[in-house]
Amino acid sequence: MKNSILATLLVAALTYTSDVFSDVFFGEKTIIIFGEIAARDFDQISDRQNELAYKDIGLISPGGDVTAALNIGRLIRQYEGNTTSGFPILFHSDNAEAMPLELKKFASDLNLELYGDLNIEEQIEIYHGINSRVHCYSACVLIWISGVTRSVGRGQWGIHRPYLASESADSNEVRMRYETLRVNVEIYVSEMGVDSRFYDLMMNTPPDQIRVFEPNEIDELVPRQDPLHQEIMTNAYAKLYEIPIIEYRQRVADRELCPLDDMDCRDAAMWGVSKGTFLRAKEPYSECVIPPEILNSIRSLKQSERMLSQAQVERYKCRKAALYTL
Predict the structure, then answer these.
(1) Predicted pLDDT of residue 130
(2) How do the domains of the chain map onto residue ranges?
(3) What is the fold, at CATH topology level, of the domain defined by 5-221?
(4) Which of 282 and 126 is assigned the larger pLDDT?
(5) N or C: which end of the chain has fewer CB within 10 A?
(6) How far apart are CA 170 and CA 165, in angstroms?
(7) pLDDT of 271 strictly over 80
(8) Which residues share a beta bridge with 22?
(9) pLDDT band at 1 (very low <50, low <70, confident <90, very high)
(10) Contact 87, 127 (CB under 8 A)
């Protein structure tokens, strides 16, 4: 591919960190899987799996145990989690004091900054600057594709063919074990709704090398949103807005014409009203909230279930009444 490069795994490891560590950080808003992926990471995540539904999942890893990665990925997909290669954008406001020492040092070394009063474009610029110093390789990418939405920082993203990490008694055992591994990975990639080209490129890259992709090349291989989940959520939102799906899609297109930091414009577009109409109704509109105790009770539901919960339906009815009764 045009800007793809091949690098040895040794170089990849050295550019990651001098001390290989493995852990999972559970913040208030994010989950960070960092270091070499191992079975214990799956155990940690499995113990707190309901948090996968409402926290953004960041991935900073040179790779590791493929079986553990597949197990973690299936849990993330079960809860319709969102993945990011690098630090999720909400990481800056998470509870830094609770971080493991290794991750705190890593974040400090990257000059992780608080965004303060910066506008959204400036926040995104800092966010990408941070992520340009991290990477997600090999088994890390297998976890990344499990997200129903997938974000890519400016750090490196690379794949190679999975390999057996332990010795076998003879060639027959090697053949049996490797075929099992190959088939499991192929099935998993298909389950995640990812095109077979991704699998083919991965399998055609020797395990002692990494094929690194530019962000635009990643988009050609893996959609940023899982197609099935996107259809499910489109259907859910059309129901909430009580409009046909084709009209909902048009409103989404209209919203993208608004500046990223002009939330009034973006919200107005989604309701099919002018910005002026939205602003006149903003006070009663902003009072349509889900009580904290109910919000806490539904936040561990899958995204698609949470969107059509009774509390969310009532919230949207309240908003619609505020806008259309002026």
Answers:
(1) 59
(2) 5-221, 227-324
(3) 2-enoyl-CoA Hydratase; Chain A, domain 1 (3.90.226)
(4) 282
(5) C
(6) 15
(7) yes
(8) 35
(9) very low
(10) yes
pLDDT in tens, 18-34: 234 458 888 888 898 98
- The per-residue pLDDT of the chain, averaged, comes to 83
The pair of structure tokens assigned to 2 is 């045009």
Q: Which residues contact 226 (CB under 8 A, 6 or more apart)?
A: 147, 148, 149, 150, 192, 193
Residue 45 pLDDT > 50:
yes
CA distance 108 to 280: 45
Q: Which residues contact 23 (CB under 8 A, 6 or more apart)?
A: 34, 35, 41, 44, 100, 102, 103
Split at pLDDT 50, 70, 90, the class of 318 is: very high
Please say whether the beta carbons of 136 and 86 come within 8 A: yes
* Closest residue by Cα to residue 212 from 107, 140, 146: 140
Q: What are the Cα distances from residue 28, in Å, to 42, 116, 183, 306?
A: 19, 18, 37, 19
| C-alpha–C-alpha distance, residues 310 and 50, integer Å | 20
